[in-house]
Amino acid sequence: MRRRRLRSTTAAFAVGAVVAAGLATAAPAHASATTTRDGAAVKQVCTKPTTRHQLACYALMRTDVTQPSVFSLNPVSPNANPSGYGPNDLRSAYNLPAGGGAGQTIAVIDAFDDPNAEADLAVYRAQFGLPACTTANGCFRKIDQNGGTSYPTPDAGWAGEISLDVDMVSAIAPNAHILLVEANSATMEDLGAAVNQAVAQGAKYISNSYGGPEDPSDSTSDNLYFNHPGVAITASSGDSGYGAQYPAGSQYITSVGGTTLTRNSSARGWGETVWGSFIGVSGTGSGCSAYDAKPSWQTDTGCSKRTIADVAAVADPNTGVAVYQTYGGNGWVVYGGTSVSSPIIASVYAVAGTPGAGDYPAKYPYQHTGALYDVTSGADGLCWPFYLCMARSGYDGPTGLGTPNGLTAFRS
Hints:
Elements: E1 35-37, E2 40-44, E3 56-57, E4 60-62, H1 87-93, E5 105-111, H2 117-127, E6 140-144, H3 156-172, E7 177-183, H4 188-200, E8 205-208, E9 210-213, H5 218-226, E10 232-236, E11 240-242, E12 245-246, E13 254-263, E14 270-274, E15 283-288, E16 307-308, E17 311-314, E18 321-325, E19 331-336, H6 338-352, H7 364-367, E20 372-373, E21 403-404
Helix pairs in contact: 1-3, 2-3, 3-6, 4-5
């Protein structure tokens, strides 16, 4: 699909039919005020952590891009034409096959409830010609952290994260089943219980697009929630530039950084740099964990403990992705943040195939370093050693070993 430039004009749209199901809306009561990040006006839709063990999603909603509104026209093609990268763009950028994920279940872990999740997902998939994924056909399933249907309180901010997560899974692995596990709250205890529930439900691929400051108890959380051999678990590295976050610092998961992804005239047709700048403050997270042990497959010498990240994918809101959201949104929106990159990488693992039963799949990219697009320019802050916050040839903190170039790096 042709890349659609992120528009900030106020083009008029003809009135069309409105999809009736799932159009209840709510103002994002927990969202932060609009700020400018690298030229893009964005809103962090989830509340920043204020207490110990409280976490926040990393979704950044563009507020300066005019999109077709669900209230003004038919949100499905040919009229919608939403801004932001769509499935064909993402699969082209990362050399991924169409129609991947058959027979696999990908879980996304989020806090609170999005009552419109299934209805919004249907619009996204219809817009981009993806097969239907519904409760009725067995493709989509939403459960609470205990495995039932006593869903938590709805939250407009986390609903944006949920829409982003299920849409990115759809984009990369359109034939996979989607399991949405909603935690009672945004604490590590509840989100961790949701991770364990996803494993209990049989999911082999689990995305966590949230995090917060490191804590001395992280090593305990590692073993309680993330030590699941045979399951590919991903976590976003953060959106505040250089600095270690958790659970991205867990030794058992694949830590996912973020890039700026643009079309160019190269043989690949795309180019990537680190999302961020030397100023720090905003951009992909990276760093050296203060508490978590270094996994055996990491061999960089500038950090004696866990280094963040392992791999990366698009996260810059300036080169963001199209998402459809009606609870806390008015339809099509552009999202960025490392909340984009985590479900992308979890879905790449799913398309690549089932992990070895006793494996920690975070090690797979380290066994196939030549099968990734190496990101060699950009930074997310100032630090020492420099590679922890600056791109270079080979491994670096902001983008790890690089971004997907096909599936090889995500297989045993």
